[in-house]
Each structure stands twice: as C-alpha cells, then as structure tokens.
Amino acid sequence: MGVLAALGSALCYGVADFTGGLLSRRVYFVVVALAGQAGGLVLALVTAPLLSKGVPGIAELAWGAASGVGTGIGMIFLYRGMSRGSMSVVVPVSAVTGVALPVLVGVLLLGDRPQPLPWLGLAVAIPALWLVSRTGDSNHEGVGTAASSDGLIAGCGIALQYLALAQAGGGIWAVAAGRFAAVLALLPLAVSARRRPRTGKWHMAGAVATGMTAALALILYSQAVQQQLTVIAVALSSFYPAIPVLLGITLLGERLGRMQVTGLATAGVAIALLALG
Predict the structure, then answer these.
(1) Which of 8, 143, 200, 243 has a CA positioned 20 to 30 A from the CA of residue 210?
(2) Domain residues for 221?
(3) 242-259 confidence digits (pLDDT tens)
(4) Domain total for the chain?
C-alpha cells in the first residue's frame, strides 16, 4: 500500500503542477500559490479529524509547519519559473533537486538503508526525472539560467517539505499545520498582488482546486512514509513530472520528444525497482 500511496501522491502532484503551471501564465503566480495553499488548508482541516487517530502532538505540528515553509518556498519559485514560460527547465531542476536532497539526508543522517534493487531504482530515477521533463523549447540562455535558479530553490523547498513531513510521523494534522504555515509565509508576498489586475473567479477557483489536489498529494505521501523508507517514498512521489507530460499529450496535443520517451521508459524501470524493494 505504501507504493500505491506514493504513486497516488505523484499523480495528484502532477495534475496540480499541470493546472498550476497553466494558471501561473494567466494570473500572478503569488495569487495562484496563496489561493492554492488556502484551498489545501481547507481540505486538510476537513480530512484530518476524519482520518487521524487522537490529538496531534506539538512535535508533529512543528514538523508539519516546517514542511509548509518548504511548500511556500517551493511553490513560489516553481510558479515563478513556469510564469516565465520556462517549464522545460524549472520542472526537471526542481524535481531532481527535490528527490536528491531527501535521499542524501535519509541515507547520511536518518539511517535509511534501502535494499540493492531500490538503490538501483534510485540511481535510475534521477536521470529519468530529468529526461521526462525535457521539451527542448528553452533556447535563450538568460531565461534558462533564471529558470534553473528558480528550479533549484523550488527543489530545496520541496525537499524540506518531504523531509519535514516524514519526520512529523505521517499525520494528516501535520499536513494541515503545513498548509497554515504556507499561507502565513505567502501572505506578505500577496501585498504586491494588489497592483496586479483583478483575478477572475474561475481562475481563483482553479487555483483553490489546484491547492486541494496538491494537499491530497501530501496526505497520500504522509501515508506512504508510514509504510516505506523515506527515500523510497520520496523517489516514487517525485515522478510527478511525468503527469504534466502525459496531460500535455492527451489534452493539449503536444508531442513527445526522444528524451521524453526515454525518460518515461526509464521511469517505468525505476518504479518497478523501487516497488520490488
């Protein structure tokens, strides 16, 4: 069940990234991030009393809040990179950074010791994540450099989110605490949104729905870390870049490049190896 929960997390995160990326090209990216985290907070607060056992401890809520700070950082820089039209750069950089750092911390500091097959899966996963996200449409060095910086910072935020939520013990109240912390972290930036054109109600509804989907991804991830090593749960959850690629093909009529085909095939191999562990 841990593998299925982690893959479900990847599916939800992929859908959220796809819709969030589209919205951030039409609406100020800070508004998309803030409305999304508010929607995620509502979902988590409704879900936590129904699925959680007992009252959360201070440590669980504190780790959850730390994960929310990571979420706020990750979403701001991810959406900013996407708003610049550099999805082909920012997504793979953030995805690879977001999985590599938790793996290093898990092995070096947390004592995670995957079996040989999952180790091989982890080794295959990182290049697979990079390849599956490449579209080759970013030809301007300045844009690519800026997007790489956005992706690197977003990846660090995502890594903090994953690691802190795993340390919280997998409780859904920790997800709720994280969404609350993310809203607080994003509020100061929302002041600048007042100088922007008003956001349409459908765009706002889309941003809220996107945040709810991302919160569901974190709830599934929180269940996965209770049944899998953190490094494996993170690696499986981090296959979310494959989903925007597939949605782009089916909904937007996009075509796969050779690197993406290779990346999808490699991702399938990596998932199989990780699942066998």
Answers:
(1) 143
(2) 2-276
(3) 787 788 778 877 676 788
(4) 1
